Amino acid sequence: MHSLERETKDKIMILGTRGSAAAYAIRDFLARSDVPFDWIELANEDEARGDALVYGLNDPRLPICIFPDGTRIEHPTIRQITEKLGWYRNPSQSEYDLSIYGAGPAGLSAAVYGASEGLKTVVVERFAVGGRAGTSPNIENYLGFPNGISGAELADRAREQACRFGAEILLLREGVRGEFLPGKGVVYLKDGTKIVSKASICATGIDYRTLNLPKEERFRGAGVYYGAGASEAALCLNDPVVVVGGGNSAAQAAVHFARYASKVTMVVRDHSLKETVSQYLIDRIHATPQIEVLTRTEVVALEGDRILEAVTVRNKDTGEERIIKTSWLFLCLGGAPHTEWAAELGIVRDEAGYLVTGPDLSPNGHRPPNWQLDRDPYYLETSVPGVFAAGDVRHNSVKRCASAVGEGAMAVTFVHRYVTTG
User: Alpha-carbon Rg of the chain, whole angstroms?
Assistant: First the structure.
């Protein structure tokens, strides 16, 4: 599973129209997967008939992907693209030592350390390798990369490393239910595939939170985007951009978009960025005249017809409203952990849905209910023996890429202990 860039100098061509949610989904997947592509926007009927060989801008065959070998796929699904890249595969083993759910920094780290230490390891990922970190245009505070590295490139390197050690990565798969007995867990995927393993690590991260506004779903992928939007930055050339959020991901996005956009407006609910953003990013934002930060402000309305045309923001203290003309709204908001499956299994979660692990399961010195082993839960172990959690999905975790990588590696240490001693 290598980046296409390492296999050929050519790129995938995507032909489509502005505001196409389907085209955005393809660009987003390829950008997260560190696969180079050229986006060819069809601006009129003649271009559609000439370049794309379709009937017009509204032809349902758009968007179209043309691969370096000449293969043309009309209105492709992400599954079709994954199959064409040779990335879609079935499990090769009937049983694994370790199954990992989520291929963000925590899951990839666990895959590298698990596979390198001889564990038969499989990773199950709902969408693209890299998770939320894969959308980051430049991670500058990760150890060993003084000039920074994009989240997609970091994820691609980790994926290659894990696969080189023998880990299997199953893309576009999602677990729906599980059964866990001592020494053996069975997870059923949405497509009917069954994953059997001695131990499991949940590294599913968190889902993006929405604004819950009228028209938001209509504009998804057509002006409203979730995450830092690394695939879209170059398309925003000389346009105004709005970034919503007050964390590092929002700050990184604002700095990156400022290289292309005419203006970047950050909409932040809190009084300042100091509590939630690294100082080096705050300094970068203050030094970039194209970036405006609106604190104590929230987006209250979305306007437009086929695509987003403007947003209305409101100051939470004064009630003053302001309309910002833009077709580019990026939501870098904290969200909810993807742990519905855990509730069905009775795995202890906190009030926000994060998985509780280790000492946090025994705040009064008592082991969690229904715990049957004659030992306390290991540090990253949930209330079900053999099921571990790492990264953003875990209660009280530090929401940083390096911390997630560390937890993924640490979880494998406890998996070894569990597999060998129980």
Answer: 22
